[in-house]
């Protein structure tokens, strides 16, 4: 029975390996064709990758460059926008240069949004992130006050690095790393989620989520 189970698992995994190998082969062929200015063949190979994996942002980005070289600017801009929406930061410069500007997408990089996430502080929503790189000191004050007043948190010993992000719906997302015991991490996450109200980042007056792991919050308990 164990041998049969192993065989079943192997057969279920092998197609995935086969797809990855085929994508890599097609990408090499496409890149070689592109470098030799054989844009028609490059296009065929990149499109073949996308048929296998419609979210392969490398193939989508490379296909956009191919379409630009073929004079298909409208199609190229559509592909660049899709590549960006999948988390390809590098697509932004070409979008700005060739397409007149970035369109709305449900997730964006913090450098490109109109407004960064906010939190409620003294009856007013203010930026959670300042200088696009660090947490607002007033947010840190809220956390320190909460830790000081919480008996449960006072029992925790250790250091933690917490990544904070606000999703498109204004919900705080947390990832906790460090010495804090596993059973206490949920407690910390709930503390931060309930600490105050949050508003998501916005672009063209629409809510967006942010790419990336979040902003680091170092805490010592």
Describe this structure in words.
By secondary structure, the protein is α+β, with helices and mostly antiparallel strands. It is 51% helix and 20% strand. The chain contains eight helices and eleven strands. The chain has helices spanning 2-35, 39-52, 57-69, 73-85, 91-98, 137-149, 151-154, 182-194; strands at 107-108, 118-121, 124-127, 129-130, 134-135, 159-166, 172-178, 198-199, 201-203, 206-210, 215-220. Strands 1-10-9 form a three-stranded mixed beta sheet, with no helix packed on it. Strands 3-2-8 form a three-stranded antiparallel beta sheet, with no helix packed on it. Strand 9 and strand 10 form a beta hairpin. Helix 3 packs antiparallel against helix 4 and helix 4 packs antiparallel against helix 5. It is elongated. The termini are far apart.
